[in-house]
Please model this.
Amino acid sequence: MTLRTLIADDEQMARRRLRRLLEAIGDVEIVAEATSGEEALAALDPREVDLAVLDVRMPGLSGMDVAQLAADRGIAIVFATAHPEHAADAFDQGAVDYVRKPIDAARLALAVERARARVGERKTGRVALTVRDEVRV
Model:
């Protein structure tokens, strides 16, 4: 399943890097980019977007604001930010995952797979179970 993805970050270089990393994962189509929270919110149409990768700190509305305002749209949210102090808030807003900048490609791929599972659940009405290779106690 191809994930139709919005990238929202106020820094052009960050958007370019995210685009490159996301496209390398495969089955990810970048359908929109936004430079502010307002642009991101306007682009989050569930008929067009499955996944939003949001920076936390952007001009105007923050990524957290966008996630809160778009919560009823059923779009998977992954935060990509250099601000780890916002991780707990991200999950409180229903984020699928949270990746720290500078972004590690493997970590982003894991976040995308989690988003893919969430989107699949929304589209099929079935809950996806993830089996881990290893469990640590």
Observations:
- The domain at 3-124 is CATH 3.40.50.2300 (Rossmann fold).
- The chain has a mean pLDDT of 91.
- The radius of gyration is 14 Å.
